[in-house]
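# step 3/5: fold
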Amino acid sequence: VQLVESGGGSVQAGGSLKLSCRASRIITSTFTSSRMGWYRQAPGKQRELVAELTRDGVKNYQDSVKGRFTISKDNAKKMVYLQMNSLQPEDTATYYCNVDTDSWDYWGQGTQVTVSS
């Protein structure tokens, strides 16, 4: 499985970005039944879960992004998205897409998000 993120960039506080993650080399049924997640890692900090979409379709968010970020997916296109609104400087980090199948855990290479005040 290969995951490629895109959509990162530099924005001012209050702005929005939409991250995309394209999955390849995975059959649609496996993608559909997998858990999806977006993580981020700021310099000098541990990687943290930002948002997840469970196998049952439940969406969970880190408290700091609730009401601002939305995770979604398109099974037919094998895409995972993270809509980020009202971005703040503390959201600055490298964002990683994660796909957790029953047998393995896959990660993308990351996309940088920089929010200036």
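# step 4/5: annotate
The radius of gyration is 14 Å.
# step 5/5: archive (pending)
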